[in-house]
Amino acid sequence: MGSPFAVSRRINLVGATAESVITIAQAARLVVERTEPSGSQGIARNTVNHRLRHAIVKQKILASIDHNRMYLGNFAIWARTIWPGKFEDLPMTVIVSAAVGTAAGVCSGRGSGIALSSSIKHCHKVISDQHDQLFRQAARLETLQAELDQAKIQSEKKKASKRGKRFRS
Question: In angstroms, rounded to a whole number, what is the distance separating the alpha carbons of residues 36 and 31?
Answer without folding.
Answer: 8
